[in-house]
Design goal:
This protein is an alpha+beta fold. The chain has six helices and twelve strands.
Amino acid sequence: MSDLEKRSFYSFLALYIISSFIFLIGIGYWYYTAQENAIKNEIFHKLEHIADLKSGEIILAHMQDEKVKRSSVPKHITLAFIDIDGKVVEGELIDPSLPIKIGYFESNGYNIYISDGPKKHLNIAYIVAQTNTLSTALHTLKQDVFKVLILIAFLIVIVAWILSKVFMRPVQERVTQIERFINDVTHELNTPITSLSMATDQALKQGECTAKTLNNISISTKQLYDIYRSLTYLNFSDKNDLSEPLDLKTTLEKSVAYYRPLAEIKRIKFHVDLEKTIFNIPEAQATLLFGNLIGNAIKYSSPGSTITLTLKADRLTIKDEGIGIEEHKQKEIFDKFKRGTAYSGGFGVGLSIVKSICDTYDIRITLRSAVNVWSEFCLDFH
């Protein structure tokens, strides 16, 4: 990964983890608080139940003039029976200095419930139910919540790492495409610039400009202009320029004449059969459309071959005798920065421009090809 990709990756990873941890801590705190309240309520109801149960036993024994029947009490609950004089007549108070007041409260780590349920039957005024299980239960709850949070945090880190990889994959692909595009453009520019430099140097040394030198300068200039025109369309062109009725035959003839010197370098011939066809499209867009298709045909054709252009019945076919395109690559070559082959350079935008123009002006484009035999692009103008 490049430095930019690494910064993007770790920024996304950190943002995801930090936000997830904040959310996780909030959920953990909410859960702990809810469980703490639930445990406190449970203890309150248990103490209340025990106190009411003992109060009922005392009242029943007094009314029947019998001894109090003692029911079992959980080991973690301590009872104290207080008479009308405020003395402990049975059991014990955890805190002897505990003030006797009716209700539920906490004191010295104990949860205490004092009930006046006996109503002074058998001289018992209050029943005190006491337990210290809350601290133990909360300690266990804290440990459980902490363990679960650690486990979830670990899973979040793993998920964050996976999501960061998934998130960065298209970014990496795009960065790779852009880097390759820049390298390809640099390479494409190098050839005509070098040729121009050599031609001008030669002309300066000879003190005159021969026809061959002028031809080399013309060809190199056209190559530079094609690159400029493609880059301008990709970045600055208004793809919704006002359409106008255009004779496609005339525009095609101009394009063929424009690219003929390039074809002659590879001894490629044009076979042209065109009829007048009127279609609403800006001339600049039509020129760019035809130029990319003809330029590609020249680029990927074998030396000494023929390129056939036919324009009849609102259909244009451009057929070359070149390297062809493998079937599984025929769909993706219209994507930006995609190339069917590394043969003869290029920077993977020509056919994406062709597809963009066709889509803009409702031109149906199809491709047929046989590897190492031929390729044929068909444009239907309806």
